Amino acid sequence: MAHRKKKGRIGLLVKLAFLLALLGAGGWLYLQHENAGWRPDEEAYPDQGALVGENDGAVDFKVLKGLGASFVYLEASRGARGKDANFSRNLEAARIAGLQVGAVHLFDPCETADGQSANYVTIVPRDADLLPPAIRLTRTTDECFERVSDAAVQSELLTLVNQIEAHTGAPVVLAPSEVFEDRYRPARRLERALWLDGDRSEPEYAGRPWTVWTANSGYRSDAAETPLRWLAVRP
What we know:
Blueprint lengths: L1 H35 L11 E5 L8 H6 L4 E8 L3 E2 L3 H10 L3 E7 L6 H9 L12 E4 L12 H19 L4 E4 L1 H7 L1 H4 L3 E5 L14 E8 L8 E6 L2
Parallel strand pairs: 1-2, 2-4, 4-5, 5-6, 6-7, 7-8
Antiparallel strand pairs: 1-9, 2-3, 8-9
Helix pairs in contact: 4-5
């Protein structure tokens, strides 16, 4: 009899553990769904948009505008040689949809500024209607084949900023990741507007206020099959 009671208790504990696991999985899925569709409050942040690149595939910019976007930033160039294959097509489609458009360069700390600025100007037109150019700062010299000092990275970045500004006629927006900022301190060295990352939480890692905020790096919508990076601008 005692053996049967013990087996009964074990069976009950197993069932309870299974039920709790199901509830936990359901709660996790619900949170994932809520997070995927989250955007900052539009009354607090009326100017919102998205960052789009070729890895996002086909994007319906008219749908994006219908969702409340007023602008998009398009990935344009990477380092000294990489170009976004969809940039020109996305630029035209976004403008037809009535969105303001800006171009993004991904900085490569392993390469010189001259090659990177030359790459940028061959794909991004000199156009006063474009939003201020942005430089994404995510890679570090840990990925370089040869050693590059932190001072060299800071020097090349300053040169690149000056060269892109000379081409566009507008001050750049610096977009450092938290890792890049901790190592090279661009926000503290260069007086430029900042674009910072922080899913569902306003970022503070740069030591001064941001202008553009990547508020949701995995925003799911009907505008694209893959999640987009949703942005908000400080009012």
